[in-house]
Design brief:
This protein is of the alpha/beta class. The protein has 2 domains: 254 residues, Ribonuclease Z/Hydroxyacylglutathione hydrolase-like (Metallo-beta-lactamase, Chain A); 41 residues, no CATH class. Helices cover 24% and strands 25% of the residues. The protein is built from 9 helices and 18 strands. It has a 7-stranded mixed β-sheet with strand order 6-5-4-3-2-1-18. A hairpin with a 3-residue loop joins β7 and β8. α8 packs parallel to α9. The longest helix has 12 residues. It is globular, with a radius of gyration of 22 Å. The structure holds zinc ion (2 copies). One zinc ion binds next to loops.
Length: 303
């Protein structure tokens, strides 16, 4: 299964008529993850026809409003729709404080459970894993504690060579043995080597979501060789000083990080509302790292 990434918001703090602030959905085939949840996220989920009720985990990068002001509304809608599944939220502890106040003053008691997982944004830590995937925090450099997230598939089992298998009519337990790399013994005692019945496993996919941050080289070692990097590119190079002051990045700085890390593809986003046209940002980035694309609201990437 490929990863499917849907961009719900590609703007920085102030939305425009065409760009919502930050939110993305990552479908790993086994999980539906929400990355940031700015104002307007639930409308975007509806427009993109994503199955809201299947979102099990929400990862918040930091507590600037353009990354979490939509969460209280979405949580309330889940309540109204009768959600029963536990919702897992990854964030610094202050998010819980803010949401608790909002729930209290609006006299809302959710009919589902919320489990908070408090993260330490300055660390590179494993914060979630199951048999399919690992999720790590990625320390970033911004005006408040901020981290990105790295989603990395675990090693996969071997694929069965269907045409070779069909001739043998093997029972299920032996198929599992093959997937796990074992040779098999037939009822007549004949041993068949694993390599004659299997194909290499599909490759392990990886995605890093990095926003908001200044140009920050210590990030590179954690994302080296990954498939796709989303990196914020709030400004063009003409605003490089402003970017440094505000601890944001320019498009070419984002591309420089992608180049140093040797990622396969770069997606840039979190664009300042001052830019009506985004092609000039793309041009600046591609001069440094050619395989760069723009994030635009509603874009879907499969990789
Ligand atoms: Zn932001
Ligand atoms: Zn920010």
């Amino acid at each position: 299964m490929p990863f499917v990434l849907t961009i719900l918001g590609s703007s920085s703090a102030a939305p425009t008529s065409e760009r919502n602030p930050s939110a993305q959905v990552l479908n790993t085939g086994k999980h539906l993850f929400l990355l940031d949840c700015a104002e307007g996220t639930q409308m975007q989920l509806r427009k993109m026809r994503l199955k809201m009720s299947s979102i099990e985990r929400v990862f918040i990068t930091h507590l600037h409003g353009d990354h979490f002001f939509g969460l209280i509304g979405l949580m309330t809608t889940w309540h109204l729709l009768g959600r029963k599944d536990v919702l897992h939220i990854y964030s610094v502890p202050e998010l819980k404080e803010a949401l608790d106040v909002m729930m209290k003053v609006s006299r809302t008691t959710l009919n589902y459970q919320v489990e908070y997982h408090f993260i330490e944004p300055e660390l590179h830590s494993l914060i979630f894993e199951d048999k399919f995937i690992e999720v790590y925090t990625l320390p970033l450099n911004h005006r408040m504690p901020t981290c990105g997230y790295l989603f990395k598939e675990k090693p996969k089992s071997l694929n069965l060579n269907k045409s070779a298998i069909l001739k043998l009519a093997l029972p299920y337990p032996l198929l599992q043995d093959l997937k796990n790399g074992k040779d098999i013994t037939l009822p007549d005692g004949k041993i068949i080597s694993n390599t004659s019945l299997t194909l290499p496993p599909s490759k392990q996919l990886s995605y890093a979501y990095c926003t908001d941050t200044s140009y920050f080289e210590p990030l590179v070692k954690y994302i080296t060789g990954i498939d796709v990097l989303f990196h914020e590119a709030t400004f063009m190079e003409s605003e490089v000083k402003l970017a440094a002051e505000k601890l944001h990045s320019t498009a070419s700085e984002a591309a420089q990080i992608a180049k140093l890390a040797g990622v396969k593809q770069l997606i840039i986003g979190h664009f300042s509302s001052r830019y009506k046209e985004l092609d000039p940002l793309l041009l600046e980035a591609t001069e440094v790292f050619s395989n760069t694309v723009l994030a635009k609201d509603g874009f879907v990437f499969k990789f």
